């Protein structure tokens, strides 16, 4: 496959977000199982995940065209139409996420943000205490802890389905979505004629990341401002 047969589809900020999030989700388990008793590394890992997710929400509003929610979030009619076409030899083509993939993006973001947020309210009543426990009732803290413990495995289930779908496209539909998220390019025959990546400045992505990091910092240190 020559470079002339490929079309830019994903900007660097979006690709970095994707793979950093994968690494941090794996690290979340490792820092929980093998971290120190105070869960310091695990909590920092969680703050990093929340920062990335907030960044993705911002980038979904102001980022490159294939990263913007308004470009790939579709209604039920478009989703069913795509799923119907996916069974055929000539499925609908998209430069960015297809309508079904968009649902998975939204589901994973919602699950991961919920998981990270509940961690802020989680305590073991001995050593470890999330930074927002003092704001919640004991009943909510107990609920948050349960959600935080179960949520990770729910996320893994969705992520596993996401991986299986990507492999299906690689081996059955001959559309290598995994490689596209690495090098940012899709094969020309899988992209609608005339559509191109409209990349935004990496500096704008950095601003979004700094805003996200600042927001998470303020939230986890809110006790200092009260």
Could you explain the architecture of this structure?
It is built from eight helices and two strands. With 226 residues, it is mainly alpha-helical. The N and C termini lie far apart (59 Å). The model has no long low-confidence stretch (mean pLDDT 94).
Task: Fill in the keyword field for this structure.
226 residues, mainly alpha, 63% helix, elongated
Short description, anyone?
With 226 residues, the chain is an all-alpha fold. Helix content is 63%, strand content 3%.
Number of strands: 2
Low-confidence segments: none
Structural class: mainly alpha
Number of helices, where a helix is a run of at least 4 consecutive DSSP H or I residues? 8
**General shape:** elongated
For this structure, the quaternary state is single chain
Instruction: State mean pLDDT (0 to 100 scale).
Output: 94
Binned, the helix content reads 55-70%
Give the ordered list of helices and strands: EHHHHHHHEH
Q: Strand order of the main beta sheet, please?
A: 1-2
Give the termini separation. 59 Å
Write the layout of secondary structure elements.
Elements: E1 6-8, H1 12-34, H2 40-62, H3 69-72, H4 76-86, H5 99-119, H6 138-171, H7 177-183, E2 185-187, H8 202-220
Antiparallel strand pairs: 1-2
